[in-house]
Amino acid sequence: MQYVFKLSGESFGLAVAELRALFDIFNLKFKIIEHDKNIIKIKTNANKKIILKLCERSAFIKKTYLDGKIWAVSKGRFLEREPQKKPAFHPTTLKPKLARALVNLSRAKPKEILLDPFCGAGSVLIEAGILKIKTIGVDFDANMIAFSKNNLNFYKVKNYKLTNSDATQLEKTLKPNSISAIATDLPYGRSSRASLKNLAHLYEKFLISANNVLKKRKFAAIMYPHYINLPKLTNKKLWKTISKAELYVHGGLTRKIVVLRKI
Ligand SMILES: C[S@@+](CC[C@H](N)C(=O)[O-])C[C@H]1O[C@@H](n2cnc3c(N)ncnc32)[C@H](O)[C@@H]1O
What we know:
Elements: E1 2-7, H1 12-25, E2 30-36, E3 39-44, H2 48-57, E4 61-66, E5 69-73, H3 96-105, E6 113-116, H4 123-130, E7 134-138, H5 142-154, E8 160-163, E9 179-185, H6 193-213, E10 214-225, H7 230-233, E11 239-250, E12 253-262
Parallel strand pairs: 6-7, 6-9, 7-8, 9-10
Antiparallel strand pairs: 1-3, 1-4, 2-3, 4-5, 10-12, 11-12
The structure holds S-adenosylmethionine (SAM).
S-adenosylmethionine (SAM) is lined by residues 92-94, 118, 120-124, 138-141, 144, 166-168, 185, 187-188, 202.
């Protein structure tokens, strides 16, 4: 069967990385036949019901065409979870679409445990919870843990655990090799030289701790700002890089998104 997907245009690299992750999650094979900006034509043996589920789970698939006609439209499903609609609003809160993309890139499946070690007000945990994935949120700011709790309860998400602790010492509260997926938006810090150095140090320590608690061959989807060189901080003996993408936000910020797999 051949399908044509119209992907939303913020970042084609990110949309295609998400598409690949979705086919992995559903254990499906596909081949790209044509790719022209945000229009992508694929061939797959998957049945229609599964493709429909995949479209519903996606953040970036806008429309799906079959035999030249619109077959499925995924529009407006994140509106009720936009940051301003959440009872506990914080300026760092991620848009639900991006949070969903991170969850998908982490390849987490229902009933598995996904960890967001910098959970803030909980957007990643909410998107995962809606997909029936169990979640653990960590944040060293007790106020943010309270924000997450408030927001998770508002969207009636169950099966979550929140811990007020440090993402560079995850082993203190989590068992080694116990987590099935990590999806997170790292702290952005301030732009002075000293704080950039501290931020790089924080990222480096987090990557080591995250590797300890993640199961072997599982994925971490990580978003971070362009002014930190995360690939340089990533130990190649611990992680294999699966995909890289970026998303322009404004003149002073481009977000980078990397997917790492524990070796
Ligand atoms: C970019 S925000 C995350 C926003 C979140 N994705 C959301 O949508 O609400 C980063 C979070 O990391 C937390 N944080 C910073 N350093 C930390 C550390 N060492 N351990 C745990 N949390 C930390 C901050 O308190 C902040 O809530």
